[in-house]
Amino acid sequence: MRKKIGPLILILLLVFFLAKGWWEGNLSPVSSENQVQSFIIAKGESLDSVSFRLEKDRLIKSATFFKIYLRTKGLTNKVQSGTFKLSPNMSATKIATTLTSKPDDSWVTLLEGWRVEEMAEKISDQELGNREEFTKQAKKYEGHLFPDTYLFPKEITTEGIIKTLRATFASRYSADLQAKIKKLGLSSEEGIILASIVEREARSDSAREMVASILLKRYKIDMGLNADATIQYILGYQPGEKSWWKRHLTKDDLKIASTYNTYLNVGLPPTPISNPSLSALVAVANANPQTPYLYYYHDSKGKSHYAKTLDEHNQNVANYP
Fold this sequence. Notes:
Blueprint: H1 2-27, E1 37-41, H2 47-56, H3 63-72, E2 82-86, H4 92-99, E3 105-109, H5 116-125, H6 131-138, E4 149-153, H7 158-172, H8 175-183, H9 188-201, H10 205-220, H11 228-235, H12 278-285, E5 295-298, E6 304-307, H13 310-319
Helix pairs in contact: 2-3, 5-6, 8-12, 9-10, 9-12, 10-12
């Protein structure tokens, strides 16, 4: 019996030391090179992708081992997105610690149709700037701050963020788009104002183009735009709803005295009311003022209904709550 146990123990010891060597070998640095490189993890990037790129960039020895290591340490879901400074002379342990710590910069997503104040809240939440300061500096650029996902360094200034958002908007609002909008009888700025309303009044691409066409038709025939979003913009933050866009407007809301009130005033408001997406800008550029419709209505299920007359519109409201 002892003769059988002896070899088994030797085999187990051999396996143990081989496993220990494999573990420690993969934990050790890839090389002694200390050249630092920036390693960017995209927002939502999978651990498989991150590990593969680390191995490809010769920052770790094995992607498979790295995933196993993170799993054993309970770090699988703690890898952050952003930019990290890594080098080949860092151990896998050090790299894991770095990737699960705060990055050198931060991803921030600014949603389509947000007003400046909402962007300011998000930027403040991401510790990229002061909410009041951003609002103060950016408000004059309402409508020209492109909504997208950005990667900002932690040391970026408010001016730097605004400059980036404006530059992105300028690159997306192309000369071709502006030319198409001018052919509709609108200036480039009027196109932005209309797009900012369309962004809030419709969510799908098809609905945006139809709403843009109807609003443009109303504008052309000197009919009030009657856009609820412009009233919401005037009313501002609603503490009870914790939103900048009041959900249910009252008859008194529609009578509020303001140049932004498109129920009381014919034409466009003086400035944009939100920061529109490329889709909203394209919808305005492709708008057809010859549409037969004058009214639109979105029911509680999000389906859009269009009407040629006020009676038809009222029927839609009654039939599709």
